[in-house]
Write a structure and sequence with these properties.
By secondary structure, the protein is α/β, with parallel strands linked by helices. The chain is 42% helix and 14% strand. It has one domain (7-467): TIM Barrel, CATH 3.20.20. The protein has 15 helices and 13 strands. The strands form 3 sheets. Strands 1-2-3-4-5-7-10-11 form an 8-stranded parallel barrel, surrounded by 6 helices. Strands 6-8-9 form a 3-stranded mixed β-sheet. It has a two-stranded antiparallel ribbon with strand order 12-13. 52% of the residues are buried.
Length: 469
């Protein structure tokens, strides 16, 4: 049984749905720049128009109401609000747009969960070093305070940064996300470090200046797969699995929820690899300064993005300094798992339950919101998406078991995504929506998938059950 005030939601991100990339004074973001460079994105696609939610917000709101959501997770475009990334130049048209979105949601009894940063740094700040520069921390804090000040009376659930792991690794080591840098071995750890520092500073600002009046809650969204040893009785596989979890979930959760520092297993693995490769500089994994706001305790709930699971054994090194070598863990798909759409996405609902139990046991039983979870489709369109229906049914059942049988304090579930949208480097080739968007039609018509109808039925059913409690 789900708690009476359980958050039933769906999520989106500004760059993936809004379009209006130059509309009404918006500044460019790193994703605008990245997509306009040749060879970066599937078929040279971009988010210039995307779902055009900047102009078609009312259509999105109809979709939200059709599902019967209690909550909607959206992100703010930093560059739409502050075109050069700083509060010296506020774009009032951007403020009006988000005020309307938030007011409309509340008028329909839907609570907004607002993400400040979902991958789309203002290009003006990237030009000054972006997330690699220590100066980004105060820029982010100023932006966060601006948003708390502007929208905080209406917004009670905040996410500072979405998936810092993805921003750091895919954007600064693998180069397949904006800003498209390939600087293995050091940049990703520096970026992750600055993201944690920025998150902590923003949390402390909220806690000191806004929480007493606004009474909201702030966290950061951490993505992680569930990992288990390939051979459950093999010590090497068990150790590799622990290391893999430390480099994924632990990288950002450990400093915030447990010690105020990175997992020791992560630091020692990085330092050991540095020694092996003859690197003589200071540790590639930075340390937190005692002179800065504390990292520990800067999350009012645990925001989890979960998509899939992996079996793990040692390996995967490449003989150079990079996260893959440092981690020394090879991830394997169990052949019994079905794969949905994209090759990396195996459907493993039980993995979410196990990960939730691990979070409860490791991070002192926090309140947990599942802020992203979804099932992708590629190739021919299937409005009658039976597999996705089964996926949502099975997954929500596992969440119920985590609550009832494992005692995990799960407060909400957000499906990814409300709409088919611009799926980063995959462009429009991958569809996660509960609503199909016809990108070949100038009207960008939204059509509910069968999975959307089924999700709406599940929400209604579980709401009814809690009403009877």
């Amino acid at each position: 049984m789900f708690p009476i005030d359980f958050a039933w939601g769906a999520g989106t991100a500004a760059y993936q749905i809004e379009g209006g990339w130059q509309a009404d004074g918006k500044g460019p973001s790193i994703w605008d720049t990245f997509c306009h460079e040749k060879g970066r994105v599937f078929k040279e696609q971009n988010g210039d128009v995307a779902c055009n939610s900047y102009e078609l917000w009312e259509k999105d709101l109809e979709c939200i109401q059709q599902l019967g959501l209690t909550h909607y997770r959206l992100s703010l475009s930093w560059a739409r609000l502050l075109p050069d990334g700083t509060t010296r130049n506020v774009n009032q048209k951007g403020v009006q747009y988000y005020n309307k979105v938030i007011d409309d949601l509340l008028a329909c009894n839907v609570s907004p969960m607002v993400t400040l940063y979902h991958f789309d740094l203002p290009q003006a700040l990237q030009d000054q070093g972006g997330w690699k520069s220590p100066a980004i921390v105060t820029h982010f804090d100023s932006y966060a305070k601006f948003c708390f000040q502007t929208f905080g009376d209406q917004v009670k659930l905040w996410i500072t940064i979405n998936e810092p792991h993805v921003c750091a690794k895919l954007g600064h080591e693998d180069g397949i996300h904006a800003p498209g840098l390939k600087e293995p071995g050091i940049a990703a750890y520096l970026v992750g470090h600055n993201m944690l520092r920025a998150h902590a500073m923003a949390w402390h600002s909220y806690n000191s200046y806004y929480r007493p009046k606004q009474k909201g809650a702030v966290s950061l969204a951490i993505n992680s797969d569930w990992f288990e040893p390939l051979r459950p009785d093999c010590n090497e596989d068990i150790t590799a699995t622990e290391r893999d979890l430390a480099f994924t979930l632990g990288w950002f959760a450990w400093p915030v929820f447990v010690t105020g520092d990175y997992p020791e297993i992560m630091r020692s693995a990085i330092n050991s690899q540095s020694t092996k490769l003859g690197y003589s500089g200071s540790s590639r994994l930075p340390s937190f300064s005692k002179d800065e706001p504390a990292i520990l305790g800067t999350a009012d709930f645990f925001a989890l993005n979960y998509y899939t699971s992996r079996k793990v054994k040692p390996g995967g090194g490449c003989g150079q300094m990079c996260i893959k070598s440092d981690r020394d863990a090879e991830e394997i798909l169990d052949p019994s798992w079905s794969v949905c759409g994209v090759s990396w996405l195996a459907v493993v609902p039980y993995g979410l339950r196990k990960l939730l139990k691990h979070i409860k046991d490791t991070f002192n039983n926090p309140a947990v919101y599942i802020t992203e979870n979804g099932f992708s489709q590629i190739g021919p369109l299937q409005i009658e998406d039976v597999q996705r229906c089964e996926f949502y049914k099975d997954t929500i059942l596992e969440v119920a078991k985590a609550i009832e049988e494992d005692g995990v304090n799960v407060c909400g579930y957000f499906a990814w995504s409300l709409l088919d949208n611009f799926e980063w480097a995959d462009g429009f080739s991958v569809r996660f929506g509960l609503f199909h968007v016809d990108f070949s039609d100038a009207k960008l018509t939204r059509t509910i998938y069968r999975s959307g109808r089924e999700y709406a039925k599940m929400i209604m059913k579980y709401k009814r059950e809690t009403d009877v409690q």
